[in-house]
Specification:
Blueprint: E1 4-8, H1 16-25, E2 29-34, E3 45-49, H2 55-69, E4 73-76, H3 79-92, H4 99-106, H5 108-117, E5 125-129, E6 145-149, E7 159-161, H6 164-178, H7 184-188, E8 189-194, E9 199-208, E10 211-219, E11 233-236, H8 242-259, E12 264-273, E13 276-283, H9 293-299, H10 303-311, E14 324-330, E15 336-342, H11 344-348, E16 353-358, E17 365-366, E18 377-383, H12 386-399, E19 401-405, H13 413-418
Parallel strand pairs: 1-2, 1-4, 2-3
Antiparallel strand pairs: 5-8, 6-7, 6-8, 9-10, 9-12, 11-14, 12-13, 14-18, 15-17, 15-19, 16-18
């Protein structure tokens, strides 16, 4: 009998299909719990419609389902479903992180407090209850500092500010972005923290019984100084010394322990400077976008296959690849309507470029950070050396040209007449 996995995911998640393919590859049965008029399904999976906006109702439905289906594991794909999956696992006796640990990892204010109490290097910070009309005083730790929503990912709403005027403008801008949140506290509070200068790295790992196995450390060769923090290049292996590598790994492991995370995927962001390693973010999920494809280059398995295997204690023999790999996340640089992306075929011919995937289609309304939430696409490269990978990606980037038309608002006749 096939082992059965329950995947809890928002309907718009790009992670659904990679998980479905991974389950099929490993010979597992997978059920998809999501929200919509029609349950999400495929030839390899069954779909369950649940009200993800109502946590208690969704938990009741899935608990009843789990009693009947006897799942071997439950996995949340995205930040918005991690706590639901953890609560279901706790209720049904399946292996998962505790809901409290998942919540700490998701909420930036809780994670900062946790790290501070654990003695882990963390930026000075304050949590502000903000009002649309009241100005905010300078933070005690001074400028520059960074305004952050409590629970958004992908750098949405994250703004570096260098003065009190910038701070108040940034707060109002970030407030508009979090107005879509359903949690009242998250709509009315923002994190303001000390800006930490330094080189930034991403860490992808897997926890087993609380022990971190590092799958990859990625260089981010472009400086992320703000005012917005769009990510572009990820290069692996990271060009660091043995001491720096150990420092990054120890910081991520200590942070996982402080949060109480014990199993499953971990995606972390760290900065290195002369004072040491600083944890910027840590999430109990896989890396965003299509970047997870880099992990299959390094291990022989997709990242989703590794997550599923970890969830059911299935041993996989991973290969060791000493070559380098990288991805360019094509950022949205201006607001408007995407007309086309020029130069893709020419960029595909650049030596060491493996694939280019444009994620957004013609006619898509695009926004840059801090409001935006999408990349135009992804460019992948592999080569014997990390510097060759970076050079290939930069050459491809110089060729690719997104054409974005301005978005003109349509006014009705009455508004035009009164204008």
């Amino acid at each position: 009998m096939k082992r059965r996995i329950l995947l809890v995911s928002p309907p718009e998640s790009y992670r659904i299909q990679p998980y479905v393919r991974a389950a099929h590859s490993l010979g597992l049965e997978i059920n998809l719990a999501s929200q919509g008029e029609w349950a999400i399904s495929s030839p390899y999976s069954a779909g369950i419609d649940v009200p993800l906006h109502d946590h208690e109702a969704a938990l009741a439905i899935l608990s009843d389902l789990a009693c009947r289906q006897k799942y071997d594991a439950v996995i949340g794909t995205d930040d918005s479903t991690l706590e639901l999956a953890a609560n279901l696992a706790q209720k049904t006796g399946l292996k998962q992180n505790l809901p409290a640990a998942v919540r700490i990892a998701r909420r930036k204010d809780l994670s900062r407090l946790c790290l501070q109490h654990a003695g882990i290097k963390v930026p000075a910070f304050t949590v502000l209850r903000v009002d649309k009309n009241l100005p905010v005083d300078d933070p005690e730790f001074g400028f520059p500092c960074v305004v952050k929503p409590l629970a958004l990912s992908g750098s949405r709403g994250v703004i570096r500010v260098d003065s009190n005027e910038d701070l108040n403008t940034g707060i109002q801008r970030s407030l508009k972005i979090v107005s879509e949140q359903t949690d009242l506290y998250e709509k009315n509070h923002l994190l303001v923290e000390q800006y930490i200068a330094g080189r930034e790295f991403a860490v992808e790992g897997m926890l087993s019984d609380g022990r971190l196995e590092v799958l990859a450390i990625f260089d981010k060769p472009d400086p992320l100084d703000g005012p917005y923090f769009e990510e572009t290049f990820y290069i692996s292996p990271a060009r660091v010394t043995k001491f720096e590598r150990r420092l990054i790994i120890e910081t991520v492991q200590a942070s996982c322990t402080a949060y109480g995370l014990i199993t499953g995927p971990v995606h972390a962001e760290c900065r290195l400077n002369k004072e040491g390693a600083w944890l910027i973010e840590l999430a109990a999920r896989t890396i965003g976008g299509l970047c997870s494809r880099l992990l299959s280059f390094g291990t022989g398995y997709s990242l989703e296959e590794l997550v599923l295997a970890n969830a059911i204690d299935l041993d996989l023999t991973t290969q060791v690849n000493t070559d380098a790999a990288g991805v360019l996340m094509l950022p949205v640089k201006e607001a408007g309507v995407l007309r086309r992306v020029e130069g893709v075929m020419k960029a595909e011919k650049v030596p060491f470029i493996d694939a280019i995937e444009i994620s957004l289609r013609e006619g898509h309304h695009v926004l840059p950070l801090p409001e935006g939430a999408s990349y135009l696409g992804f460019v992948f490269s592999s080569a014997p050396d990390a510097y060759v990978v970076e050079q290939a990606l930069r050459e491809a980037d110089s060729i690719i040209n997104p054409v974005i038309a301005p978005l003109w608002p349509v006014l009705d006749g009455k508004k035009k007449a009164s204008a």
